[in-house]
Write a structure and sequence with these properties.
The chain is of the alpha/beta class and 187 residues long. It has helices at 24-28, 33-48, 64-71, 95-101, 107-116, 122-128, 140-152, 156-170, 174-185, and strands at 3-6, 53-57, 60-62, 74-78, 82-84, 119-121, 133-135. Helix 2 packs parallel to helix 3 (64-71) and helix 8 (156-170) runs antiparallel to helix 9.
């Protein structure tokens, strides 16, 4: 009734292999298209799943790892976890992160995260509203599963409708979103 994604080993994911940034032609010759297409499909599946998606993050979530966290409905992160668009440090824009950041956080913070390539802590991201729950070191899965149990204790139909309505309302004008919500209340 919920999907939890997490990394194995020392981190959630460090994102793209940075050695690819040394070969500029590779980024422009289409040789990465298949990899990028699979990644885009993964992000889309996370966003469009009828089930709540939760990223349980430890270590680092950089580049594509950060994008995966932004594509999930919720983020539970271990204290001290690092997030960032490190691609910028290599002269490569974090384009998918940009699209996702615009829907998650205000313009000034989003632009700063997207443009600087700096690392941010889970605590900072929690303050920005990009992390829902902080977990003590070593308690990530326990904290994530506690959060999941709250979601799965709710009626599945209501959870699915809330997620789909929320997604639709994000892209609608306020008046249309209110009318759509009113119709859902009539069911």
């Amino acid at each position: 009734r919920a999907i939890v994604i997490t990394g194995t080993g020392a981190c959630f994911t460090a994102g793209r292999d940075i050695t690819q940034f040394d070969r500029k032609a590779v980024l422009q010759d289409g040789s990465l298209n298949t990899t990028v297409d699979i990644f885009l499909e993964t992000l889309t599946l996370l966003m469009e799943s009828s089930k709540p998606t939760i990223a349980a993050i430890h270590g680092v979530a950089l580049g594509g790892g950060q994008a995966m966290s932004l594509a999930c409905d919720f983020v539970v992160a271990e204290e001290g976890t690092k997030f960032g668009n490190v691609e910028m440090a290599y002269g490569f824009p974090a384009a998918m992160n940009i699209a996702l950041l615009t829907r998650q956080v205000g313009r000034r913070i989003g632009m700063e995260i997207a443009m600087t390539g700096d690392l941010y802590t889970a605590e900072q991201y929690h303050g920005y509203g990009l992390v829902n729950r902080l977990a003590a070191p070593g308690a990530l899965m326990e904290t994530a599963l506690e959060f999941v149990s709250t979601l799965t204790a709710r009626a599945p139909w209501a959870v699915q409708r809330t997620k789909s309505t929320y997604r639709l309302a994000e892209d609608m004008a306020l008046h249309g979103a209110l009318n759509f919500g009113n119709q859902l209340n009539q069911v």
